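REVIEWER CHECKLIST
Item 1: Sequence provided? yes
Item 2: Single chain? yes
Item 3: Sequence as submitted:
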Amino acid sequence: MIGLKTAGIVVENPATLVSLGDFTKPDALLAAVAFLIIAVLSERRVFGAVLIGILSVTMIGMMMGIVQYNGFFSAPPSIAPTFLAMDITGALNVSMVSVILAFLFVNMFDTAGTLMGVAERANLVNKETGKIEGLSKALKADSISSVAGACVGCPPVTSYVESAAGVAAGARTGLSAIVVAVLFLAAIFLSPLAGMIPAYATAGALIYVAFVMMSSMQHVDWKDFTNGAPAAITALMMPLTFSIANGIALGFITYTVLKVATGKTKDVSISMYILSAVFIAKLVFIG
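Item 4: Structure as written out by the authors:
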């Protein structure tokens, strides 16, 4: 949904909420081209299909005159104005509790949902226990990054579902993360070059990744409505609400209610009851 919206393939419509965009516009057309290039190359087992697709569409955009070259190198802006500029007293105000809890829920469950989806695609989920290998390390890295990011004044540093693009390209180990980190560091000084990549190029990659991740839905027991319905609600509400956390919350609540109402309480763990209650409280009091 995010990829389709970014590309202009799905647009706002007051009458029907959303509708099909205009494919005569470059953004929608080139996003579709990027998706097709990536899909075809991936099916043919071409290494780096996602990167090739993004760069190819960027070059096409340059030839069409809709992508401008704005330079190669630039010094990063100073972090002095925001470094450690924290209002601790203001954060301790009672009125800020709901805001802090909202950020906590979004960050925590967005991260959990992203890790679950990406790990499943990367075959990092233990088939016997259902646990994600190295989950504690990933959560520690995410939490430390969030705190460090806040100290320098940047938005929450967290896991993003776009990581699945790397998995689709073959990333599996910590070496991939190190390479990406080095490239991000270089991008700080090469921001004009990185900024040339148009949104519709990455939108095509996001659409491809979405289809790749949908393959995990085959493991859902669709014959059991109490399993299939919560899974479907989770998958649908994530894009429709533009929030992984909201999708997880509604999925957990639906799962617990259906299991209890149909007498299948043995399928519901204590932690599921607790999380469902927390999610209900979050939706009622925080939104």
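Item 5: Key structural point noted by reviewer: Residues 70-195 form one domain.
Item 6: Recommendation: ____
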